[in-house]
Write a structure and sequence with these properties.
Layout (H helix, E strand, L loop, with lengths): L1 E7 L2 E6 L10 E7 L3 H11 L6 H4 L4 H4 E4 L2 E10 L7 E9 L4 E5 L4 H10 L9 H34 L15 H38 L6 H66 L15 H23 L3
Parallel strand pairs: 3-7
Antiparallel strand pairs: 1-2, 1-3, 4-5, 5-6, 6-7
Helix pairs in contact: 4-5, 5-6, 5-7, 6-7, 7-8
Length: 329
């Protein structure tokens, strides 16, 4: 699907573009969402440039993601869509900046692009030039990335509250989490960590993109646009630090959860060990009197059987009392 955003008489006009149609007058931004091969070829022919294919967008070499070709600057960065779903969708977003047009190619639908397109109806000045459109889109992507990091932080805080509830310093009356809750917490930590990993990859790609754009497009940018680019670079650095902090926090929470699970398992093993130790002496007594020897003096006693039962009971109670006296139970 091809959408064209044109600037006419101070207004932004959004309209679809079919294969074979010429570009409308005043076209500034051309957005290709999951384009078919014919749509990609049509836009490339209209602009006289070679747009990358989906396979080329997925290449991880820096020379394949950031390069110059003719009058065009080609910039590709990882992005994330469907963040609120259980399975966020990673993808690539390619910007092609020419002297008159900005082309975006994407096979995912990040909310940042949609938010920028909606903002143009209120702020048409953001589409004054292709450079303004590019900086506005980058700003929308960075803002959305910050929102995602806030979402990850809120999820980790919620998981932390579930892990550390019911401790000696907890003023509430809530019980400590059981093993099933801890397993759910571990799943939540895994999802938050995976999303944070994707965000860090996106931030790294955006940081490389901004550095490359600063070096290669300096002659195409005004003073205000250069200042905006520097602000984006600072924002990306601060967001990268926040993503690293969330990564360390998730690792700490994972270690704490595993520690609680180990404590719970050790408690269970301790109970079994105490039970085995308590029943060992009665088993020994029962084994002695269960031997098939004819000359066991106690077999002829009138109270031999009750005494044997009493001995087994005492031999089981005494170890338990000793363990409690030592504070092992």
């Amino acid at each position: 699907m091809i959408k064209v955003f044109s600037r006419l008489d101070g207004r932004v006009i959004e309209q679809p573009l079919a294969i074979g149609d010429p570009l409308p007058p005043g076209t500034v931004w051309i957005d290709l969402l999951r384009p078919a091969e014919g749509e990609r070829a049509h836009v490339a022919a209209c602009l006289g440039i070679d747009l990358p294919t989906r396979e080329e967008m997925k290449e991880i070499e820096a020379s394949s993601q950031l390069y110059l070709e003719g009058d065009g600057i080609f910039l590709t960065t990882p992005v994330i869509s469907r963040v609120d779903s259980p399975h966020p969708e990673p993808g690539e977003l390619t910007f092609v900046l020419t002297p008159r047009h900005l082309i975006t190619m994407r096979y995912a639908d990040p909310r940042s692009v949609t938010a920028f397109a909606m903002r143009l109806s209120r702020q048409p000045e953001a589409l004054t030039s292709a450079q303004d459109a590019l900086l506005g889109l980058l700003d929308a992507v960075v803002d959305r990335t910050a929102d995602v990091l806030e979402l990850i932080g809120a999820r980790i805080d919620g998981l932390s509250a579930r892990v550390f509830v019911g401790g000696p310093d907890d003023p509430s009356d809530q019980a400590a989490p059981d093993s099933r809750d801890l397993r759910d917490v571990m799943s939540g930590i895994g999802r938050a960590g995976d999303l944070n990993h994707k965000v860090r990859a996106s931030l790294a790609g955006l940081d490389r993109l901004v550095v490359f754009l600063t070096a290669q497009a300096a002659t195409r940018l005004t003073k205000d646009q250069k200042a905006t680019l520097k602000t984006l670079a600072r924002d990306l650095r601060s967001l990268s630090e926040q993503a690293n902090f969330l990564s360390h926090e998730a690792n700490f929470l994972l270690d704490a959860t595993l520690g609680l699970i180990n404590i719970e398992q050790n408690t269970i093993i301790k109970i079994f060990s105490v039970a085995a130790t308590a029943f060992l002496p009665p088993t020994l007594i029962a084994s002695i009197y269960g031997m098939n020897f004819h000359h066991l003096p106690e077999l002829d006693w009138t109270f031999g059987y009750p005494l044997a039962l009493l001995a087994m009971l005492l031999s089981a109670v005494l170890p338990i009392w000793y363990f409690r006296h030592k504070g092992w139970l």
